[in-house]
Every structure is written in C-alpha cells, then in structure tokens.
Amino acid sequence: MSSADRGWVGRAPGRVNLIGEHVDYLGGVVLPAAVDRFTSVSGAPAAEWSVDSDVPGGLAYARAVGEELGAPPQALRVTSTVPPGSGLSSSAALLVAVAAGLAPGLDGAAAALACQRAEQRATGVQVGVMDQFAAALGRRGHALLLDCATLEHRLVPFPDDLVIAVVDSGIHRSLADTPYNQRRREAESGMPRRRRHVESELARVRAFVEALEAGDRPRLGELLKASHRSLRDDFEVSTPVVDALVERAWAVPGCLGARIMGAGFGGSILALLDAGTEAGFGQALEDVAVRFCRTADGAYVR
Ligand code: GLA
C-alpha cells in the first residue's frame, strides 16, 4: 500500500536563493539553500481533493502534484511558517511537502521535477526547477549548487556565522500576475539586455562559490550588489520600493550585501550579515518584516 492509500504527513522547507536569479529556466547554474521555515501537510484519501489551510489557493497545487504522482484524491490539512507571496517559495514548500507525504520513497530529484511540472500546470507560470530542488534536497549547513541543464548538484558548505536575512518588501504577489513568463521569453529569444543579465549572473554564481569556499566575505557582498544592479537594470524585475530597501540594507554596518531575491516584482530581498549584527540590522529596517534564517534540510534528505 502506498501513502496515497492511507493517512500520511509531509513537511518541506522554504528556500532562499543566494545567487543565480532568472537563470534556472535557461539551464543555468543556481545556488539556493533550504531554510528553517516549513510547510507541514497531513492528508488522507477522500472522495475529492480538498485543502484546509489558513492560506487560500493551495488546492490547485495539491491536486496538480497529486495527479503528477498518480495519487487518488486526498483531503489535506496544511500549516506553514513559510510566509506566502514573499519570496521564500511557499508554493514549492507546499508542493514538495505533499510529494514527500504521498511518495516518500521517490528519488528527491524526480520529486522536484514532478513538483515543477505541477506548479507549471497549476499556475501557467513556466517556472524553473530551482525552488523545488532546494525544498527537496537542500541540506543544513550548506547551499545547493544546481546545474539546471544536467540536474547535477553538489553541496557547498555555508558558514554558521554568516546570517541570512530575508526582508519582506510588503509587496506580495502571485507569479501568475507578474511578467515572469514574458521575461523568460525575452531571455530565451536573446534580447540583448536580458542576455547580458544572464551571462553576467552565471559568472557571478561561479565567483560566489569561489568566494564562499575561500571565506572571502567582502567579495560575497560585491557579488550580491552586482546581482541586484543587473536584475534592476538589465532584467528589469525590481521595483522602486525594493531598490530603496536594498540600498538601505547595503548601508547597515555588518551587512555584506543585499539583492532582490526570487522572481522579483516585489517579494523579498536577501541580505547576508556577519553574525552578531542582526540587532542593528533589524533596527535599521524596523518598519518592515525582517526574518533571520538558518539553512535547513530538504524534505528528501535522509
Ligand atoms: C521563481 C521561480 C524559479 C526561478 C526564480 C527566479 O522563484 O519559481 O524557478 O526562476 O523565480 O530566479
């Protein structure tokens, strides 16, 4: 009997992306990490699909991932500490939590691909595979270096005394309401400015991994700042509110650098801080929600 035939539970984390933005759907290399905010789902077979959750909108995702996995209809109860619509990929956390509950024995990469297809089907947004991979196969104490063309991946140690801060711009959106698909088409068709972002971002991912491995923190900060400028000017996925937040973060002592994170068009910014400077950072940005995160294990890490 599979999990789909009886009661089950599944849990998956949200994710940050350290660097490598808007390159996954082009087969680029990305560096996300799973973080310690989680979506938990319990489920049992039922006459039809249903979702009981404080956050609306989960039904289409649950049904799509269930169908991808060949599961019969389920009644689900969802609880989550991944804030929706704010750049931590609450959708991937939900999808991967359902997959982990329904198909715990599946290979993590296969589960991530099933969740990516489910998200594309549920939303019509042609997302890449980065978020689902991070939620499935991220690892505590590490970032996940993922080649989205080959799906080869390896863990890169992430130091304990480097703090991940996620700053919520307050602009919450569903990707289906953004020009995400349009940006993807523009990049795929070779539009020069979009390609300039992609090429420069891929070089930054390589440099970022080298800097992480060498412990070169100033370099990490420079690369985050350059990534933001490129996403703002060449890929045009930032907004004035987000740009202002990023610049405020850059100015805080102990902040190595910051950039818009995830799909953009609002959502969250990512900042990296030297440990011990969190209080000052929180004070400097006290008018917005700041979440300090630690790396965590993905749902398919055993
Ligand atoms: C969203 C998508 C990802 C990726 C990012 C941008 O999070 O789900 O696949 O494309 O945007 O890097």
List the helices and strands and how they pair.
Elements: E1 8-19, E2 29-45, E3 50-53, H1 58-68, E4 74-80, H2 90-102, H3 108-123, H4 130-137, E5 142-147, E6 153-157, E7 162-168, H5 180-188, H6 192-214, H7 217-233, H8 240-250, E8 255-261, E9 268-274, H9 278-284, E10 290-293
Parallel strand pairs: 3-4
Antiparallel strand pairs: 1-2, 2-4, 2-5, 5-6, 7-9, 7-10, 8-9
Helix pairs in contact: 1-2, 1-3, 2-3, 2-4, 3-4, 5-6, 6-7
The structure holds alpha-D-galactopyranose.
Alpha-D-galactopyranose is lined by residues 21-22, 24-25, 89, 127-128, 130-131, 262-263.
Structural shape:
globular
Number of strands: 10
Which sheet architecture does the biggest sheet show?
6 strands, mixed
Task: Give the topology string: H per helix, E per strand.
Answer: EEEHEHHHEEEHHHHEEHE
What amount of the residues lies in strands? 25-35%
Oligomeric state of the chains present here:
single chain
The N- and C-terminal alpha carbons lie at a distance of: 21 Å
Structure description:
This protein has 302 residues and is α+β, with helices and mostly antiparallel strands. It has helices at residues 58-68, 90-102, 108-123, 130-137, 180-188, 192-214, 217-233, 240-250, 278-284; strands spanning 8-19, 29-45, 50-53, 74-80, 142-147, 153-157, 162-168, 255-261, 268-274, 290-293. Strands 1, 2, 3, 4, 5 and 6 form a 6-stranded mixed sheet that branches. It has a 4-stranded antiparallel sheet with strand order 8-9-7-10. Strand 5 (142-147) and strand 6 (153-157) form a beta hairpin. Helix 2 (90-102) crosses helix 3 (108-123) and helix 5 (180-188) packs across helix 6 (192-214).
